[in-house]
Amino acid sequence: MTGPAIPKLLVLPVLTVSCRSTHCERAHLVLTTAHASANALLKAYELARLQRGRPKGMTTDNEQDLLRSMLVMAAAGLDATAKQLVQDGLPALLAIDEKARNSFEKFVARRLSFEPPAGSAAAIKLLAATLTSPSPQRRLIEEYVDHLTGGSLQSATSLFEVAAALGAEPSSIGLVPNELQPVFETRNMIIHELDINLNSRTRTRNVRSQGQMIANTNRLFRLAVKLFESVDARLPPKAPKAKATK
Predict the structure, then answer these.
(1) Is residue 177 part of a domain?
(2) Nearest 10 degrees: CA dihedral of 27, 29, 35, 36?
(3) Any domain includes 16
(4) Is position 150 within any domain?
């Protein structure tokens, strides 16, 4: 006799992304870990539904929280992957990629400007720190990396700046503002307002559809993968391992 059929759980699409460059190894680990965590949350959501007989109708508060956590994890994965690419890959890109170098030059020009918003005091301070540094270019690159990674990358605008810094073409990596902004608005509502609808008399929480939350999660991971692959493809590949001698 065969046992009861094992139900097929909801899962995110398999993340098929390889890593060519040593500069991208840590970003690759961040991306794959975030995807695995989001996938585990989706499985937990489905298991919770199975435990109560997978009824039709409204999902429970606990099930909604698992969907919310899945989306937040995807957004965090995109944020952390992009920042790791900046920290590990940007210095190497600046030496070989013209688009990345142009974005860097524009940043330096803005920071050393005596006009607002930088202001003369800030510009003089940075100029002095740069000129007295043993490596002026490295000092400016550090300033650039700190600027790009210092805030939250939870908006299309901030991601555009990072994509430009990494020399990635927005259209080629799927960076489409009108598609991404609603996703980030949902994420921010969850993070900053606990997804509570304050306009409701009873202050109930917003109910998120399973299909939309999964679609939004996949959307963020697709962008993270495309950004990663764009950077990884333009950096030098890993050196081949030396063959062991007898």
Answers:
(1) yes
(2) -170
(3) no
(4) yes
Q: How far apart are the first and last CA of the chain?
A: 55
Query: Along the 246 residues of the chain, how does pLDDT read in single tens digits?
Result: 455 555 567 888 888 899 999 999 999 999 999 999 999 999 999 999 888 887 777 889 999 999 999 999 999 999 999 999 999 999 999 999 999 999 999 988 888 876 665 557 777 777 777 777 777 888 899 989 999 999 888 888 999 999 999 999 999 999 999 999 999 999 999 999 999 988 877 768 999 999 999 999 999 999 999 999 999 999 999 877 656 555
Within a domain: residue 241? Answer: no
The one-letter code for the residue type at 205 is R
Backbone angles phi, psi at 70, to 5 degrees: -60, -45
**Distance between CA atoms of 239 and 175, rounded to whole angstroms?**
31
Q: Which domain holds residue 195?
A: 22-53+63-234
Q: Spell 203-225 as b/e; 16+ CB within 10 A means b.
A: eebeebebeebbebbebbbebbb
**Number of domains the chain is built from:** 1
Phi, psi at 102, each rounded to 5° = -65, -40
Distance, CA of 156 to CA of 102 (rounded, Å): 21
Residues 35, 23: Cα–Cα separation, whole Å: 20
